[in-house]
Specification:
By secondary structure, the protein is mainly alpha-helical. Among the domains are: about 5-85, no CATH class; about 225-329, no CATH class. About 55% of the residues lie in helices and about 5% in strands. It contains 15 helices and 5 strands. The strands form 2 sheets. Strands 1-5-4 form a 3-stranded antiparallel β-sheet, with no helix packed on it. Residues about 1-85 and about 315-320 have low confidence and may be disordered.
Length: about 325
């Protein structure tokens, strides 16, 4: 096969490629290409250069390996590029409808896919996403238990189905909208210590709406003295304001609940904070438990004395803060 004119692939047509008959070292990827898998990573000398480039490009985006119909022609096999593409096209129709929250369109597209390919491996996951769209409602949660069940379903089964079917960033965008819907329905529920994570604030964080999360925490009485709301506030403020404006809040959480601080650092992923914590873990003489983060503020002052004005007003009556008080004089 020669080079395409101007380096561009022609519009889809009844194209075919003649390759050596496939053996155990060859795999078929969607679109009808047989890709030679060489254990020594060398090129297959039987393929022309443009075959290699196209094969590598297709292999890079392939997600499944499927059988194909092929026509024997002597010792070669003529493979239709688009023989198996119909399932991919129909599956993409379902995905587009789900991403657009088009419930009727998604149901029809999934039915069409099932009729064409009853064995399609994505049908169950796509069906779950469609059921999730069908179950959407603006009705407020009646209690914390109902909210908890909805969050568990979204966090586990639905998230797995979205990530496996929609890919990135499609899954992230779609899931943020679902968290946004749950957060709105959870707004009337007051904070309860026995349901410490069943509140609108952490749902707004999952939705990526930092200001809404901050506002939800601010409505909780004495939020600054409660580990969970304090951690949500720190997370939201780190996203909105950055680390420099929140050293004091970070120190408070470190002393009140170092485990919660560990979670915030993982979720907020502030690069500067992560660098300081990495240095702390290397230099601090401990066992590596998250509880040792209670000593982080005092250690920071030994490394950055200039932080004292930002941290002095956050003193608390615990052993690490007493050491911290000695450090700042």
């Amino acid at each position: 096969m020669g080079q395409y004119e101007n380096g561009a692939c022609p519009a889809p047509a009844r194209l075919a490629v003649i390759l050596p008959k496939p053996d155990k070292n060859q795999r078929l990827v969607p679109g009808g290409w047989w890709i030679e898998i060489c254990e020594d990573n060398h090129r297959n000398p039987s393929l022309e250069p443009d075959h290699h480039a196209a094969a590598q490009a297709i292999a890079g985006i392939a997600t499944t390996v499927t059988p194909t119909m092929a026509k024997e022609t002597g010792t070669n096999m003529q493979l239709d590029f688009f023989n198996d593409s119909q399932s991919v096209v129909l599956r993409n129709d379902v995905i587009v409808a789900i991403e657009q929250c088009d419930l009727p369109g998604a149901r029809l597209a999934l039915q069409t896919l099932g009729q064409h390919d009853p064995q399609d491996q994505h049908q169950n996951a796509l069906g779950l996403l469609i059921e999730t769209l069908a179950a959407r409602t603006a009705t407020e949660f009646r209690d914390h238990a109902a909210l908890h069940l909805a969050c568990q379903a979204l966090r586990h089964d639905i998230t797995a189905a979205a990530q496996g079917s929609l890919g990135e960033p499609g899954a992230s965008i779609w899931l943020r909208l679902r968290w946004q819907e749950l957060a709105g329905r959870a707004a009337p529920l007051a904070y309860r210590g026995d349901h410490s994570d069943d509140h609108a604030a952490p749902l707004w964080l999952c939705a990526g709406d930092w200001q809404a999360a901050l506002d939800a925490v601010a409505r909780i009485a004495s939020w600054r003295r409660i580990p969970a709301p304090l951690s949500w506030m720190l997370h939201a403020r780190l996203k909105l304001q950055g680390l420099q404006a929140n050293w004091g809040l970070l120190a408070e959480l470190a002393w009140l609940s170092p485990g919660r601080l560990d979670q915030v650092m993982a979720q907020a992923a502030d690069p500067i904070l992560q660098q300081w914590v990495s240095q702390f873990e290397q230099k601090f003489d401990g066992t590596g438990e998250s509880s040792e983060l209670a000593w982080l503020p005092a250690w920071l002052l030994t490394e950055r004395p200039g932080l004292a004005p930002h941290l002095a007003w956050t003193l608390n009556k615990v052993i690490p803060s007493n050491c911290f008080q000695l450090a700042i004089g």
